[in-house]
Amino acid sequence: MQFPNAITVHVKREDLLHPFVSGNKFRKLKYNLLQAKEEQQETLLTFGGAYSNHIAAVAFAGKEKGFKTIGIIRGEELRDKFSKNPTLQFAQNCGMKFEFVSRETYRLKQEISFLNILKEKFSDFYHIPEGGTNKLAIKGCEEILTEEDSAFDYIGCSVGTGGTICGIINSIFSHQKVLGFPALKGDFLKEEIRNIVNNNKWDLVTDYHFGGYGKVTIELIAFINQFYAENGIPLDPIYTGKMVFGVIDLIHKNYFPPKSKILLIHTGGIQGIQGMNLKLRNKQLPIIDINV
């Protein structure tokens, strides 16, 4: 990719780590699965929405590592139609059992009282939070950057629950700065991130959420399709696509100094494209034209 002011951009293909547990999900689950084995747990329980990359990753990882899996899914309306949802159908095919709850109940996902109710219903389990973010997940994400990545000045990554960017911030080299691009509106994650990381060489860029979590525009879809046609790299529309769009837009707005070397972290999420295309077709909008 060629850019003005002798700026160079590279993509770290974390999406290629594993065919089904890719990107940051691979990193986040690594030490959690080891801990579950150490605790001699047989079941993993986690939370997610209709097209959650995390739900799909936990389901496959559980199958691969010999765990039973339970997904607490946001939205009671999905109970009777999840077979038409490619993400949930994949998770079920991997053996995951579902518990569909209302959005009001789902908000209790971090409450001890609610987790105790789930333990009464499902017996003992190893709890993995929504999105997979906890201390062990951050430890895994601290392994994303390697010594060879020290050549870069800026590290760009998408932000969901904040675990991935925390791991990256904790492992950057002294001359580097991390730019996070939240998939949700607002900068409410700043304080949470600040309380976890070990340095202040980072910032959140909140102008590229394209309407909020799970929202896309025709402009974003066109960008993802063009990027794939020119570079052969698929981008998901929820996270990485927005981050790459944002970085390239900032380059053209002269945000970065001349000769900056930028590394973009591809955090996976490609499985969600099929579900997004279903929604786009229903709205008679252009689809993401990527062969995955």
Major beta sheet, strand line-up: 1-9-6-7-8
Low-confidence stretches: none
Strands, total number: 9
In whole angstroms, the N-to-C terminal distance is 22 Å
Counting helices, strands and paired strands, the structural category is: alpha/beta
Q: Hey, roughly how much beta strand do the residues contain?
A: 15-25%
Q: Count of helical segments?
A: 11
Helix content: 25-40%
How is the main sheet built? 5 strands, parallel
Oligomer: single chain
Task: Sketch the topology as an H/E string, one letter per element.
Answer: EHEHEHEHHEHEHEHEHHEH
Radius of gyration, in angstroms, nearest whole number: 19 Å
The average pLDDT score comes to 95
The 3D shape can be described as globular
Cofactor: pyridoxal 5'-phosphate
Family: Belongs to the ACC deaminase/D-cysteine desulfhydrase family.
InterPro entries: ACCD_DCysDesulf, TrpB-like_PALP, TrpB-like_PALP_sf
Protein name: 1-aminocyclopropane-1-carboxylate deaminase/D-cysteine desulfhydrase
